[in-house]
Structure formats: structure tokens, C-alpha cells
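Quick one: structure for this chain?
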Amino acid sequence: MQEKVQPLDAGDADRVGGTARIADAARLMTWLSPAFPVGAFSYSHGLEWAVEQRSVRDAATLCGWMRDLLAHGAPRSDLILLAEAWRATAAGDTPRLDAVVELAAALVPSAERRLETIAQGNAFVTAAASVWPSPQLALLKGREVAYPVAVGAATAAHGLDLALTARAFAQAFVANVVSAGVRLVPLGQTDGLRAIAELEPDVAQVTAAALAAGLDDVGGAALAADIGSMLHETQYTRLFRS
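Got it. Here's what it folds into:
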């Protein structure tokens, strides 16, 4: 006789998968969704310049660009800053959180990159604090908050798992930039999905490394991406804000 399987109740569902709780994953799917009102779809993180220069011209070169960006560019530092903001918020250490807010805003290498991270960060704080209010998020309202710091503080304020948050943030970044590449190169949707799939091990690696790092490890060497974010300002035609 076939054994009857009992459905999971809400409490059991949250315990499936250990620390990577279903409730955390559901909240992150909402907060890092393209539908969340931060305007992520309007930024290419310098990719538009790379496409114009023909540095990125097909699926293979898009993967190469993204792989270098993850290993040596802003995403790695953003994940370190996210983790620092999460830990400061979880510890209730306001001076520590203030310090990472100021550091993250000062680190961006160009005006467009600053717009990208601060505009998204402020929009994230406004939306999250309006619908999921918390005293910790209220401290960030009205300030210039970089996007990873906003996400780190919000997820800690609501008790979401740090490792899951960092992995989801990195995956969302890759998906957003690859989506820009699909429109810019242009590529087919299937090629875009292949790129995202090929980059999954890189996302896992950079996330693990960032969670084991500290603020002294912040820094990068993706100079082409940084230069691209500067030269993008003067491109003749532009679809994206960065």
C-alpha cells in the first residue's frame, strides 16, 4: 500500500533546507525581482559601451566579460559591502552600518556607476521600508545608500539568511546585465539563458569568497568596465543609464 504523504505546514516548510529557508527565498524572489521598483532594467553596468566597442559581440564574449567582471570587478566588492551591512544591522551596530554606508558611496569610480548604485539603493530602501517597515530601515531613509548596502541592511533587519541573500544578489546582477546584453548585442533569449547557466559556478565562487572576506579586501581590477562606465556618458546613442 502506498504511504500517504502529509503536506508540509508553514513551520515545516521554513525548516526545509536548513538555513536556506523557503520563506527567505520567497522574500528574496520578491525583493530582487525585475518587478521590484528599483529600475535595475535601465542600467547595463558599462556593457553598452563594451558592445559598441565590439569587445562584447556574441554569447561567448558576453560570458567572458561577465566572468571577468564577477572575479575582478564591482560585484565582488558589492557582495563584501552587502555582508558588512548585514552583519552591522544584525548586531545592532549603527556606527558600523554608518561607516559602510559612507564607504560604499565613496567607492564608485564614475558618475554613472554612482547613479546606478545610489538610485537603486535609495529606491530599494523606500519601497522596502514602505511595505516591510523596520527601525533599522528607517535609519537609512533620506541618505545616499548604495544598492548592496540597502539589500544587506534590509535582509538582516528581517532575519533573512546572509549566504542566501548574497547568492541571490549576485545571481540577480548577472541576470540583469545578461538581459541587457540580449538586447544590445543582440542575442536570442536562449543564448542569454545559456550565459546565465554557464556563469552559475562563477556566481557561487565569488559569493563564497566575498562572504569569507572583509572590508580590507574591497577592490577590483576590471578597468575596462570602469572606463566603459565613464565613456558611456558621451556615447552617441544610449539605451541604458550606465
